[in-house]
Automatic annotation (TrEMBL):
<protein>
    <submittedName>
        <fullName>NADP-dependent 3-hydroxy acid dehydrogenase YdfG</fullName>
    </submittedName>
</protein>
<dbReference type="InterPro" id="IPR057326">
    <property type="entry name" value="KR_dom"/>
</dbReference>
<comment type="similarity">
    <text>Belongs to the short-chain dehydrogenases/reductases (SDR) family.</text>
</comment>
<dbReference type="InterPro" id="IPR020904">
    <property type="entry name" value="Sc_DH/Rdtase_CS"/>
</dbReference>
<dbReference type="Pfam" id="PF00106">
    <property type="entry name" value="adh_short"/>
</dbReference>
<dbReference type="InterPro" id="IPR036291">
    <property type="entry name" value="NAD(P)-bd_dom_sf"/>
</dbReference>
<dbReference type="GO" id="GO:0016491">
    <property type="term" value="F:oxidoreductase activity"/>
</dbReference>
<keyword id="KW-0560">Oxidoreductase</keyword>
<feature type="domain" description="Ketoreductase">
    <location>
        <begin position="2"/>
        <end position="186"/>
    </location>
</feature>
<dbReference type="InterPro" id="IPR051911">
    <property type="entry name" value="SDR_oxidoreductase"/>
</dbReference>
<dbReference type="InterPro" id="IPR002347">
    <property type="entry name" value="SDR_fam"/>
</dbReference>
Length: 284
C-alpha cells in the first residue's frame, strides 16, 4: 500500500483518480480548494469503505500547500505518490483574453504544481523513493487558438517535468507526465463559442470539442492510466492517454511550424475539411 496525495479531486479526472487509487488499496489524501463540493464524493467513499481522506488545499497558495503537506507527513509519514491534477482553463485569443486570465491559468497549472513538488521532494529524497505524476495535456505539445494561455501553462509544465526527471532519478524518484486528449469533463464541455470575438478560432475549437464529445472518452480512462503509472514502476516520461491523444500529437509532428501556422490561419471551409479528413469529425 502506498500513500498518495492527489490534487484537484472535486470532480472529473481528479475525483476518479482518487477513487481508482482507493479501490486499489492505497491510502489517499484527496485535496481540493473547496471541500464543501465533496458531499457526493464522501458518499461514494463511505459506500465503498475506501481509505480516502479529503483535505482542503489551494494550490495557488504557498501557505495552504505547506500546511496540508506538512500535516500529512507529520501525521501519516511519507507521501509516496504525488498526482498534480489541479488545473483550470481559460480560452480566448491572445488579444482579447484578459491578463488576469493568463496569470490565473499559469498560477494554478504551473506554479501550483511547482508548489506541491517542492513541498514533497525533501521527504521523497530523504527516503530515496517516490513518484510524481503531472497531468499535462495534448496541449503540452500543440498550441492553437483560442487555447494559447492554457497551452502555455502545459508547455511550461512539460519543460519543468523533463528537467525535474533528470534531477531526481538518482534519488530513485520517478517523474511522469500524463497527457490526455479530449476527455469527457466539465472543462472540455466548457469550451464555448465567443460570439464577440474578432477571430474565428473559438467557434472552430468549440465545434471540434463538441464533435469529439459525441463519442465521449470517460475520465476513468485517464484515472486508470495514472494508477498504472504509479504501480508499474515505469521510468517512461510521457504517457498520452485517450483515443485521440497520440493521433493529435503525431499530426502536429507531421507538419513544420510554418505549415501549422498556415493551417491555423486558413479559411473556415479549409479548416473544417481538414479536421474531417484527418479525424473523421464534423466540427461545423
Amino acid at each position: 500500500m502506498k500513500t498518495a496525495l492527489i490534487t484537484g479531486t472535486s470532480k472529473g479526472i481528479g475525483l476518479e483518480t482518487a477513487l481508482a487509487f482507493g479501490r486499489s488499496g492505497h491510502k489517499v489524501f484527496a485535496t481540493m480548494r473547496n471541500t464543501s463540493m465533496a458531499e457526493d464524493f464522501k458518499q461514494r467513499i463511505a459506500a465503498e469503505s475506501l481509505d480516502i481522506s479529503i483535505s482542503e488545499m489551494d494550490v495557488d497558495s504557498d501557505a495552504s500547500v505547506k500546511k496540508c503537506v506538512e500535516t500529512i507527513i507529520s501525521t501519516h509519514g511519507n507521501i509516496d505518490v504525488l498526482v498534480n491534477n489541479a488545473g483550470i482553463e481559460r480560452h480566448g485569443s491572445v488579444e482579447e483574453l484578459q491578463m488576469e486570465d493568463f496569470k490565473s491559468v499559469m498560477e494554478t497549472n504551473y506554479f501550483g504544481v511547482l508548489r506541491c513538488i517542492k513541498s514533497v521532494l525533501p521527504s521523497m529524497r530523504k527516503s530515496q523513493e517516490g513518484c510524481i505524476i503531472n497531468i499535462s495535456s495534448v496541449s503540452g505539445h500543440i498550441s492553437s487558438s483560442p487555447l494559447g494561455a492554457y497551452a502555455a501553462s502545459k508547455f511550461a509544465l512539460e519543460a519543468l517535468s523533463e528537467a525535474l526527471a533528470g534531477e531526481v532519478k538518482p534519488f530513485n524518484i520517478r517523474v511522469a507526465i500524463v497527457e490526455p486528449g479530449i476527455i469527457n469533463t466539465q472543462m472540455a464541455s466548457g469550451i464555448s463559442i465567443d460570439k464577440e470575438s474578432l477571430y474565428p478560432h473559438s467557434k472552430r475549437l468549440a465545434g471540434l470539442f463538441s464533435a469529439s464529445l459525441k463519442t465521449p472518452t470517460p475520465s476513468t480512462l485517464v484515472a486508470d492510466k495514472i494508477l498504472e503509472v504509479a504501480e508499474s514502476g515505469t521510468w517512461k516520461l510521457r504517457h498520452p492517454v485517450g483515443p485521440d491523444a497520440e493521433p493529435f500529437i503525431q499530426w502536429r509532428k507531421s507538419m513544420n511550424d510554418e505549415q501549422w501556422v498556415d493551417w491555423s490561419a486558413c479559411s473556415d471551409d479549409d479548416w473544417y475539411e481538414s479536421v474531417e479528413q484527418n479525424f473523421g469529425l464534423n466540427a461545423r
